[in-house]
Amino acid sequence: MYKLDFKGIVKDVEGNEFDIASSLAIILQHSRVGDSIKFNSWAIKLVVDGRLTIDKADIGTLKSFIEETDTVINLMKANILERIENKQEVKDV
After folding, report:
1. Quick one: pLDDT at residue 44?
2. Which of 26, 55, 78, 92 has the fewest CB atoms nearer than 10 Å to its CB?
3. Are 3 and 90 in contact (CB under 8 A)?
4. pTM of the model as a whole
5. Which residues contact 36 (CB under 8 A, 6 or more apart)?
6. How many other C-beta atoms lie within 10 A of the C-beta of residue 46?
């Protein structure tokens, strides 16, 4: 299992701030593709804790979803994908 930490704020070039965990939660809940039960569960966890603990297969699912979703701005895609790459392996879950 891997822990992904999405806590944090990013700013666009105009100085507007975006909460990464909340933004990802909204992206997951508003999606019309993917595993709706899983995505909704992840969204709730992101709002509560800002983190996800998921297995390697789900990391691939999340990464592919973000890469292929055309409604997500590149600022958010880059930050989400960077945090996926910086995952931490968790031994006891």
Report:
1. 98
2. 92
3. yes
4. 0.89
5. none
6. 25
Q: Which amino acid is at 42?
A: W
Taking a C-beta distance cutoff of 8 angstroms, is the pair 4, 87 a contact?
A: yes
CA dihedral 66, 52, 56, 39 (to 10 degrees): -50
List Cβ neighbours of 32 (8 Å cut-off, separation of 6 or more): none
Angstrom distances, CA of residue 36 to CA of 40, 69, 91:
6, 15, 27
DSSP string computed for the chain: -EEEE---EEE-TT--EEEHHHHHHHHHHH-SSS-HHHHHHHHHHHHHHSEEEE-HHHHHHHHHHHHH-TTS-HHHHHHHHHHHHT-EE-S--
* H helix or E strand, kind and range, residue 71: none
Asked if 52 contacts 46 with a C-beta cutoff of 8 angstroms, the reply is yes
Structure-block tokens of residue 78: 């880059």
